[in-house]
Amino acid sequence: RTRVLTGITTTGTPHLGNYVGAIRPAVAASLRPEVDAFYFMADYHALIKSDDPARIERSRLEIAATWLAAGLDPDRVTFYRQSDIPEIPELTWFLTCVTAKGLLNRAHAYKAAVDKNSEAGEDADAGVTAGLYMYPVLMAADILAFDAHKVPVGRDQIQHIEMARDIAQRFNHIYGRDYFVLPEVVIEEQVATLPGLDGRKMSKSYDNTIPLFAGGQKHLRDSIMRIVTDSRLPGEAKDPDSSSLFTIFRAFATEAEAGAFHQALLDGIGWGEAKQVLFERIEADVAPMRERYDELMARPERIEAILREGALKARAIAAPKIAALRDAIGLRSGA
Ligand code: TYM
């Protein structure tokens, strides 16, 4: 079976971008008989972005409940939190030792931080932790520990998967055997990047997200009403292709529905009315999930139990893998 793996960093509240770009396609894939799915909460990665323990815990619970509410079946999928798998940081170190520093210098997130500092006339590495720098290696370990064949992600993560491949290849080359499967990135072409309220990519870091469940139906509607539009009035034709409203609508709609919305915009539907149509379309999908989500959030101990089970399943695979690697690289234990 094809092993498919993906994760979400536990620093925020799940938003429509996470749902459309990661959770929905991942849950759909997990239902295919030929897929062996590994989905996890990336809470080691969260430490790179947040030093707020309560926020990380809360986010982990919300993200886990979101996966489950979206239809993930923990009996079918290996569903776990990264920090329950000590083999991951161990593998991170093995990989660190074969990773060229120059490779990490080119990572987008690190480069963005350096560029920002340079623009501000600061020391290039000011405020940059070694954690941020090592982000791609930790992510490579997530993927390689389970020999994932395919990694479905949004566009922003492509470089990280490419780096995981590079690192795997380097390790295989140095130690002279195919110790790791080379992972492939999977992008949902249709909905690769969902725009946020301001038209930029929907992202926690831009503070432009539309939460999937948090705040309930009213908050979803209020957020949609805040999507930035141009100044065209009702009756004036709108340009669907430059409108985030249309892009978001399309991510939730059938082709026929999207066609009808496209036409309505060209015909000059007012932005307020268009937003109401968008809200109703999203709400139709979200409402039943929100009910399950609220039930799950009321029983965090149930979520914890599911994650503990998942960790056992995940470790049953990662532990022998890491043991074999220890032997391969010269860390055989005395016994
Ligand atoms: P994260 O938590 O930033 O995002 C989780 C997933 O959601 C996708 N995504 C989006 N897709 C479409 N439109 C958007 N506006 C949007 N915003 C986010 C992201 O591309 C991602 O697929 N480093 C990863 C987590 C991670 C991981 C891994 C993923 C850690 N280890 C191993 C895959 C494999 C991250 O921070 O994603």
UniProtKB/TrEMBL annotation:
<feature type="binding site">
    <location>
        <position position="142"/>
    </location>
    <ligand>
        <name>L-tryptophan</name>
    </ligand>
</feature>
<keyword id="KW-0547">Nucleotide-binding</keyword>
<feature type="short sequence motif" description="'KMSKS' region">
    <location>
        <begin position="201"/>
        <end position="205"/>
    </location>
</feature>
<keyword id="KW-0648">Protein biosynthesis</keyword>
<keyword id="KW-0436">Ligase</keyword>
<keyword id="KW-0963">Cytoplasm</keyword>
<feature type="binding site">
    <location>
        <begin position="17"/>
        <end position="18"/>
    </location>
    <ligand>
        <name>ATP</name>
    </ligand>
</feature>
<keyword id="KW-0030">Aminoacyl-tRNA synthetase</keyword>
<dbReference type="GO" id="GO:0006436">
    <property type="term" value="P:tryptophanyl-tRNA aminoacylation"/>
</dbReference>
<protein>
    <recommendedName>
        <fullName>Tryptophan--tRNA ligase</fullName>
        <ecNumber>6.1.1.2</ecNumber>
    </recommendedName>
</protein>
<feature type="short sequence motif" description="'HIGH' region">
    <location>
        <begin position="10"/>
        <end position="18"/>
    </location>
</feature>
<comment type="subunit">
    <text>Homodimer.</text>
</comment>
<feature type="binding site">
    <location>
        <begin position="9"/>
        <end position="11"/>
    </location>
    <ligand>
        <name>ATP</name>
    </ligand>
</feature>
<comment type="function">
    <text>Catalyzes the attachment of tryptophan to tRNA(Trp).</text>
</comment>
<comment type="similarity">
    <text>Belongs to the class-I aminoacyl-tRNA synthetase family.</text>
</comment>
<keyword id="KW-0067">ATP-binding</keyword>
<feature type="binding site">
    <location>
        <position position="194"/>
    </location>
    <ligand>
        <name>ATP</name>
    </ligand>
</feature>
<dbReference type="GO" id="GO:0005524">
    <property type="term" value="F:ATP binding"/>
</dbReference>
<feature type="binding site">
    <location>
        <begin position="154"/>
        <end position="156"/>
    </location>
    <ligand>
        <name>ATP</name>
    </ligand>
</feature>
<dbReference type="GO" id="GO:0005829">
    <property type="term" value="C:cytosol"/>
</dbReference>
<feature type="binding site">
    <location>
        <begin position="201"/>
        <end position="205"/>
    </location>
    <ligand>
        <name>ATP</name>
    </ligand>
</feature>
<dbReference type="GO" id="GO:0004830">
    <property type="term" value="F:tryptophan-tRNA ligase activity"/>
</dbReference>
